[in-house]
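Dig into what follows:

_____
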Amino acid sequence: MKEILKIAGAFVGVLVGAGFASGQEIQVFFVNFGLWGLAGTLLSAAVFVFLGMALAGMGSRLQATSHKELVYAICGPALGWLVDGMITFFMFAVTVVMLAGAGALMEQQFGLSALLGSALVTVFIITVVCLDIRRVITLIGSVTPVLVMVSLAIAAYAVLTREADLNALEAVAETQTPGARYWWLGALLYVSYNIVAGVPILAIMGGAVANERKAAWGGLLGGAILGGLMLVIAMALLSRLDSIAGAPMPMLLLVQEVSPALSVLVAMVILGMILNTAVGALYAFTARFLPAGTRQFRFGAIGIGLAAYGGSLVGFVSLVGQVYPFFGYLGFFLMAAILFAWIRQRRAGAAPAVAIEQRGN
């Protein structure tokens, strides 16, 4: 049971980033579709459950030590390099979005310039990555359970104190810009770009478990938890869409309504999630090209971090609405490949066709 909970916790932890925690992603890909967006959360939950189960199970079967092994197992050597590159570049895009999110958070909560807020966080994450302070990363990551509990409490408050009727909320939703043309497409896009970030952690965590069944159950449980959180937060934001529409941090706006003092605590929790995600993404991207712990790695992290800061100037809301859908469409290929690999594995009763020699390369 311990191994199952570890995989589930890691899956949830890596995907509950700043966009999820702030409510911005949920608003763009679900709430802006109105009531159909709630159906979208159920569709996303079902796909998350399947992908979590399939990826963790295959990671265990291959005893994977990196996402590269699993990617080549799923896509084969001809396309594996392309998917590997897509996942690697997505790490840079995530860094950019997290820096923009930090700036938006500090501007909304503390009245600090978004440019200055992003700059301060950029300096922090570069320092952590260059010094490789693992304890700091672990400490920051520990805020995930707190974030989950606070999100559930605020969501319950928002639903129970709703004043506008459903027709009025639907009318507001129609004036918003969703992340896709159709609610079902938005739901699939949300899963698609998230699973690009989820592949590395599911491959590694699954590979560390000898029992494939336990690994698969861990992925399944993680997907179910994510789906439940998505539905609850979407219900909360839809209940108050008339007052939070257009806010870069809609969940934080709801917290401020409850208590200004509590909003400071929640803002710090969300900031912790931003830092955790940004540090992990910058480290993974830099380490893909330069050996970690070396002088070249540190100089590379500085340069890449500064480049990410430049990209963050586009703005948090714009990045969530543009960058994530782009990677979502690319991720459809990966989702299809995972499905076919899983079916092939079930039929053959063995691991998917894989160029084993790619392991460790």
Remarks:
- The chain has one domain: 2-355.
- The domain at 2-355 is CATH 1.20.1740.10 (Amino acid/polyamine transporter I).
